[in-house]
């Protein structure tokens, strides 16, 4: 999400808004919406509530104002008011996947698939014990997850993968020839003041529910990646396509929260964070990309990079080594991808090798190995270059190192 204005500006804007200063209505209320989101992030729930009360009064049929007011109510522990606002907002939101959402179907699933689903849930709760905090009172979460892991929405079984996600707190893997689709949920905070501390019952379940909705679109994600591989989509079209389906999954997750999780929170008087369940995200699929202007943040990071790699591979297979190298150099200049620089330098070295620039290729391979000394592919490529240059001893040393690394995989 884009960063909003700092709290010092928030207070001024909130006061001006509530005082009724004149500005074009839509522009004024949209500013208030952004300021209210920041207020909620800062814990200023009364400020957010005042902003959205005014906005709802002026635009009672605008879903996002009512939805964000519901978030503010829930953050204040006002469950009934928050639930009412969120239900109304979902109904008002054009094309919202939550309007006709049902947590599960009435279809009878095959016994073997249900057994698989139960086994995956058991493993998930064993690996993430905080998700089992309330025991039998949360059996409805277990039963729901069992059906999703069984493939109720996707049509094929889904696995639990205890491996920590690479790019976010929760991710999914598409199915391939080697295995089922899978979801991954981070157990601990990976950054910020809570770094290393365990994530809560609600945070873990919100991630699992979202990814079990999100993975249902895995075949659509695969289709978009295939079209990117073939050069049929622009980068913007690819990112927008991915984002559209992630928005639909988010809308379904929000509806699950309202229908299933929120009643539990209200019954047990649990503090709840509705922003974990996308209750502040009210874009439509047609306009959703317009809200994300920071090219170094989600969804451009990581999806724009995935598109770049698809383009690199297409240029390479088309023997377009100059174009490949040019794109790789552009990728090096982008922020937020330090962990990929070793791979970028490896491919730059491969391009320079093909372009008969051995000295530059060697420098690129050296850089790749310095950044990632565990890359067998980089050692093997550098060994081939050393061999071509007649440096047989260095070549043999690189080949031996590559073989050693490959044996450890």
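^ structure tokens above, recovered residues below v
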């Amino acid at each position: 999400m884009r960063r909003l204005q700092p709290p010092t500006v928030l207070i001024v804007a909130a006061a001006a808004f509530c005082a009724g200063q004149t500005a074009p209505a839509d522009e004024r209320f949209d500013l208030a919406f952004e300021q209210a989101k920041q207020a909620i992030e800062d814990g200023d729930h009364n400020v957010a509530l005042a902003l959205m009360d005014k906005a709802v009064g002026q635009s009672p049929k605008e879903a996002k104002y009512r939805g964000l007011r519901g978030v503010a109510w829930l953050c204040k522990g006002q469950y009934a008011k928050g639930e009412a606002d969120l239900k109304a907002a979902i109904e008002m939101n054009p094309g919202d996947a939550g309007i006709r959402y049902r947590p599960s179907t009435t279809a009878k699933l095959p016994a073997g698939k249900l057994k698989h689903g139960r086994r995956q849930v058991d493993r998930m709760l064993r690996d993430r014990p905080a998700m089992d905090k309330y025991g039998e009172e949360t059996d409805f979460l277990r039963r729901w997850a069992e059906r999703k892991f069984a493939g109720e929405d996707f049509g094929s079984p889904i696995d639990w993968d205890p491996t920590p996600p690479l790019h976010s707190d929760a991710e999914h893997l598409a199915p391939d020839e080697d295995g089922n689709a899978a979801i991954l949920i981070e157990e601990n905070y990976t950054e910020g003041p809570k770094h290393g501390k365990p994530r809560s019952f609600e945070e873990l379940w919100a991630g699992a529910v979202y990814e079990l909705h999100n993975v249902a679109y895995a075949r659509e994600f695969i289709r978009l990646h295939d079209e990117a591989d073939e050069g049929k989509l622009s980068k913007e079209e690819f990112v927008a396509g991915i984002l559209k389906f992630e928005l639909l999954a988010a809308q379904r997750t929000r509806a699950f929260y309202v229908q299933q999780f929120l009643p539990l929170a209200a019954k047990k008087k649990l503090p709840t964070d509705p922003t974990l369940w996308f209750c502040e995200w009210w874009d439509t699929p047609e306009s959703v990309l317009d809200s994300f202007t920071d090219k170094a943040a989600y969804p451009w990071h990581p999806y724009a990079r995935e598109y770049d790699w698809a383009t690199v591979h297409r240029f390479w297979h088309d023997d377009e080594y100059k174009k490949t190298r040019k794109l790789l150099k552009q990728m090096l200049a982008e922020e937020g991808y330090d962990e990929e620089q070793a791979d970028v330098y490896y491919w730059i070295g491969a391009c320079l090798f093909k372009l008969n620039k051995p000295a530059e290729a060697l420098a690129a391979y050296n850089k790749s190995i310095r950044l990632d000394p565990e890359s067998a592919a980089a050692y093997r490529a550098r060994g081939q270059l050393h061999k071509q240059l007649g440096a047989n001893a260095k070549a043999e040393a690189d080949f031996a190192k590559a073989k050693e690394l490959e044996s450890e995989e």
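Residues 1-25 have pLDDT under 50 and may be disordered.
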